[in-house]
Amino acid sequence: MRTTRSFLLPLTISLAVLVSLFPIDPLVEGPVVTLDTVLLLLVPGLLGSVLALVGLGRVLSVLLTSLACVAVLAWRGLALAPGHAPTHAWAGLTGDGARALAEATLPIPIAPGITWLLLMLAATSWILTTTFAEALEQPGWAIASLALPFGIAAVVQPEEVALDLFLGVAAGYVAVLLAAPRPVSPGFEGSRWLVGAVSAGLAVALAVAVATFLPMGEKQPWRSNLNEAPIELGDPTVDLEENLHRPDPVDVLRYTSSDGAPHYLRTTAMTRITTNGAQLDSMRLRSGDLAGAYDFPGTKVDLSISMAFPSQYLPVPFSPEQFRADGKWGWDPDTLAVVATGQEGARQSQRLDYTVTSVIPQHDAATIAAAKAGKSPDGERSLEVPQDVPARVADLLAEITKGAETDGQKALALVEFFQSDQFTYTLEAPGSSSTSALADFLLNERAGYCIHFSISMALLSRMSGIPARVAVGFTGGTADGNGFRVTTDNMHAWPELYFEGLGWVPFEPTKSYGGGSSGEGNQPAPPPSTESAAPTTPEATPSPSPEPTPTAEASPEPSPSGQPGASDDQPGPADGSSGSPWFWPVVGLLGLLVLAVLPAVIRWARGWWRLRPSRAGADLASAAWRELRDTFTDAGLPWEPGSPGAAAATMAAGLGREAATDLRLVADLVERTLYAQQAPDPGELPSATRRARRLILGGLPPTQRWSARLLPRSLIRPRRR
After folding, report:
1. What value does the mean pLDDT take over residues 82-86?
2. 499-537 per-position pLDDT tens digit
3. Considering only 95-99, 342-346, 542-546, 582-586, which range has the smallest mean pLDDT?
4. Residue 575 — φ and ψ, nearest 5°?
5. Mean pLDDT estimate for the chain
6. Where is the composition biased (Low complexity) (predicted)?
7. Helix or strand or coil: residue 690?
8. What separation in angstroms does the CA of 554 have from each of 31, 226, 283, 557, 649?
9. Helices and strands (DSSP H and E) totals, the chain
10. Crossing angle for the helix pair 450-463 and 391-400, nearest 10 degrees?
């Protein structure tokens, strides 16, 4: 089947791709189509039209215009990230965009990373549409790339996708069909229904794949990236209570730190404070890198940790930036808790060695005193106060914070209050942390352990308008050789308060038991570098082999990325971090490999399409003879014009015996198909043609043979009209 060429097709594709982007507009804050987008699509469109007018080969034209599109994309990427080396700029923009998709709610704010991803989507759509309509001469397939943005929008936010947006996509698709090469024979029309079906399926698959990386809440029921079912997490307060009266401490873990100092190791944080006490909130687990998930000041520290007991969580200093651990792990963007997601659950942490890099908040009292309460990323959840808090508690709060002029001063006043001689640390206090128990702790008994101190300070902080939650984990442990040993006695709870510009700041309100500093030497400095004293009592830890009480469900949610690692949506084995430094070099090598084999793949696809099973008769005969002509061109052999029989007789003289025999056989089959009253078996011609090509190329010297296969010259020869 021969086709005519239209110089309008490249520009039509540019316009169609431009219109196809509009369905994404409701998903972002700001325009989807910008001057950069127009420039990105206009340059290859104009170049393609010029190349069509001068008669350049179709495939070579597609390659050149695609390179032009990529060049404009790379140039605009450098403009979006000025002052950076090219590879760092592009990789950084991709990572920033992936993180923005993972963390933002709809509509997504426009930022350089998001703009970069939109430009990448436009460039990919243009290249795919051009490949379908030009290189493969199948404009019907263009629906897959043109409908991709609409499919993403329809899956992510169907209520915002109006019918007129699809009409724009359909109009662009029809325009591409009208501007595409026109078939001279009717064979193409007979397969259009098949092309349409394949294209529709491809469009749906692509839309689902790309939409996987967008923020969608619970709208992806087909995904099972972290586990086959919701993960039931245990109640940390129950674990505390169960281990408070453990007669003998049990080793939990050992660790070394890059700064040689002990550090609090956090497992999770309880965001909900209800009538029944502090509780875990539902988690939205993500996989891959944590870098950029939490961007507030602190000191970077590396820890190497060896676990000795099974745990649902990886104990890590707050805030973790990256970690490496065998098994499958997810992390919650709100609490930065690292949770086991593999089928082994808590068992995968037993005898586990892992590393973590954390940025630890360290603020002096002066910085905190000047701080203002911030707006927590979890919204109002960290400000909610149970309705049954007695009025006397509010009166007590007013008395404690009297004279405090800032939110930070209120927080420091609360620490001073709890650390005062009015309170006593004791393990004999009731384990309940309900509102009534906390009120009794604050107003009457004033005796308890870490859970009472931490939840009470979080509650009073919320009543003061400061977002607060309760972290659970371990204190720093005791010195042990060149590291530290953490046992069940080191389990602890402490409040975290959210301040503008500082993020979540940990505090230590728990009263030192025994009235002074512990002589055991097993406590680090309090989480914040305030002037308050640290608790010095050993406290309990989660049971070494917990079968936790279900209290919250962790619902898997996508990750982008980008985060290196991300990758696949499921946390990969042995890596929850930003990945190897070899990642981008490997990606670059794979990209070069794809470019190297692309001409061979295109040439193979053209040959397969010419000799496809649905072809028959004169159409098949002409296609088979063109396939042999291109084989001679690829091999660098002279092609003899004229009738197939006469041409084959002349060309066979320069071939090996078997190749010459098959060449004459193909010529005979072509002539019989075209002119004989009884045509040969239609299945014989394709197999004979493929065998002849294989033998012709196989008879060449090795260098010439590989050149013919990897860099087929027929792709750059101008096509006959």
Report:
1. 66
2. 999 999 999 998 763 322 223 333 333 444 343 333 333
3. 542-546
4. -160, 120
5. 76
6. 530-540
7. helix
8. 35, 10, 4, 9, 74
9. 22, 21
10. 90
Q: What is the dihedral of CA 640, 644, 645, 647, to 10 degrees?
A: 0
Phi and psi dihedrals of 505, rounded to 5?
Answer: -110, 120
Cβ–Cβ under 8 Å, residues 160 and 14: no
Burial of 329 (0-12, 13-18, 19+ CB in 10 A): buried
Size of the chain in residues: 721
First to last CA, the chain: 11
Cα–Cα distance between 413 and 464 in angstroms, integer? Answer: 12
Tokens 């080191």 -> residue: 490
Domains and CATH numbers, the chain: 8-184+194-213 (no CATH), 251-362 (no CATH), 367-506 (3.10.620.30), 594-715 (no CATH)
Burial of residue 515 (number of CB atoms within 10 Å: 0-12, 13-18, 19+): exposed
The dihedral region occupied by 571, where left means phi > 0, alpha psi between -120 and 50, and beta the remainder, is: beta
pLDDT score recorded for residue 656: 86
H or E stretch at 661: helix 657-675
Q: Within 10 Å of residue 86's Cβ, how many Cβ atoms?
A: 12
Pairing of strands 447-448, 424-425: parallel
Q: Which 8-state DSSP code applies to residue 472?
A: E
The β-bridge partners of 704 are none
Name residues whose C-beta falls within 8 Å of residue 550's C-beta, 6 or more positions apart in sequence. Answer: 232, 233, 234
Q: If DSSP codes are grouped into helix, strand and coil, which group holds residue 284?
A: strand
- Using CA atoms, how far apart are residues 7 and 244, in angstroms rounded to an integer? 80
Q: What is the mean pLDDT of residues 436-443?
A: 92
SS (HEC) of 127-192: HHHHHHHHHCCCHHHHHHHHCHHHHHHHHHCHHHCCHHHHHHHHHHHHHHHHHCCCECCCHHHHCH
User: Which is nearest to 493 in space by CA: 508, 513, 476?
Assistant: 508
Strand partners for 272: 279
- Asked if pLDDT for residue 111 goes beyond 70, the answer is yes
Instruction: Say which residues have a Cβ less than 8 Å from residue 588's Cβ, sequence separation at least 6.
Output: none
Q: Taking the mean position of all CA atoms in its chain, how far away is CA 302?
A: 25
pLDDT band at 401 (very low <50, low <70, confident <90, very high): very high
